[in-house]
From TrEMBL:
This is UDP-N-acetylglucosamine--N-acetylmuramyl-(pentapeptide) pyrophosphoryl-undecaprenol N-acetylglucosamine transferase. Its EC number is 2.4.1.227. The keyword Glycosyltransferase applies. GO terms for molecular function: glycosyltransferase activity. UDP-N-acetyl-alpha-D-glucosamine binds at T9, G10, G11, N119, R160, S188, Q280. Belongs to the glycosyltransferase 28 family. MurG subfamily. It catalyses: di-trans,octa-cis-undecaprenyl diphospho-N-acetyl-alpha-D-muramoyl-L-alanyl-D-glutamyl-meso-2,6-diaminopimeloyl-D-alanyl-D-alanine + UDP-N-acetyl-alpha-D-glucosamine = di-trans,octa-cis-undecaprenyl diphospho-[N-acetyl-alpha-D-glucosaminyl-(1->4)]-N-acetyl-alpha-D-muramoyl-L-alanyl-D-glutamyl-meso-2,6-diaminopimeloyl-D-alanyl-D-alanine + UDP + H(+). Pathway: Cell wall biogenesis; peptidoglycan biosynthesis. Residues 182-312 form the Glycosyl transferase family 28 C-terminal domain. The gene is murG.
Amino acid sequence: MVLLTGGGTGGHLFPALAVAEELRRRGHAVFYLGAEGGLEARLLPQSPIPHALIPAGKLDRTALKPQEAPKVLRGVLKAQALLRRLKPKAVLSTGGYAGFPGGMAASLLRIPLLLHEQNAKLGLAIRALAPLAQGLALSVPVGLPPRLSRKARVVGYPVREVRYPKEEAKSRLGFDPRKPLLLVLGGSQGSLELNEKLPPLLKPLGLPVLHQVGERWVERYRHLEEEGYRVQGFVDAPLAMSAADLLLARAGAGTLAEAAFHRLPALLFPLPPRLDGGAQAANARAYAQAGGAELGDYARLPQQVLKVLENPEPYQKGMDRLSPKGAAGRIADWLEEFL
């Protein structure tokens, strides 16, 4: 059996679920350990994967908040009890506050621990667990000290590996297959900044736009809709990215990995480092350095959009360099080394 843990948000949960499905396909028993109150608490009951939820104190980027410390300790103790009962041969932690107790328990019980970091900068839980782990799987290259780089491999970020022909995808979404399509994503929750700033800059271009504003913001931004400019709370990412010719988005690891799989050029607007510790800024730099994306500039955004659409091939090649195709399989291969 392999135990998978991590979550709190989709960026940590979905890669682990993709690996769990790959392991199940190969005939391995899996078990998922999530956090009470995390996204996994809502999604895991809908999946065929056996699971348990435990307390998991939220780790602050600068210090452990006193009221969270007892939750962290209870989580580690409950995770230890569960691991003693299940006796997994290996543990995969994808980080986030939900991924810390199970990872720490695996280390204390001397069970092989593999970590997966989604961003171009190690998150707090992964940084804490990395010295204790047997392996560190990276989505993109990350600068590491020698003691960690020796146990690290770049494997990619597991995504749903589904593509559709571009013309078919545009038609299914109700857009003209002959025109370039802009896709605006603010993450699964939507982005107020992108919702406010992008429409007045994009509408004068006269290009079709599919704008995911976030489920909670749909009615607030319904007035943006007009012919060629579509507003949705949530989009089917594989279908939307198959149809799109240019992505305008935040720089979350999952969004960028899916864009890379679809060879979709991107203009990126990462969260300010004060909000996420600099993870999205690091992601944006990594994809820009690979040639697949540029940092978006509101002052000259129309010119940036037209520049990419006029010559997309260099950006498509850049995205292809970071394609996560086969990532779930590579992580499963690594876990099988411990079985």
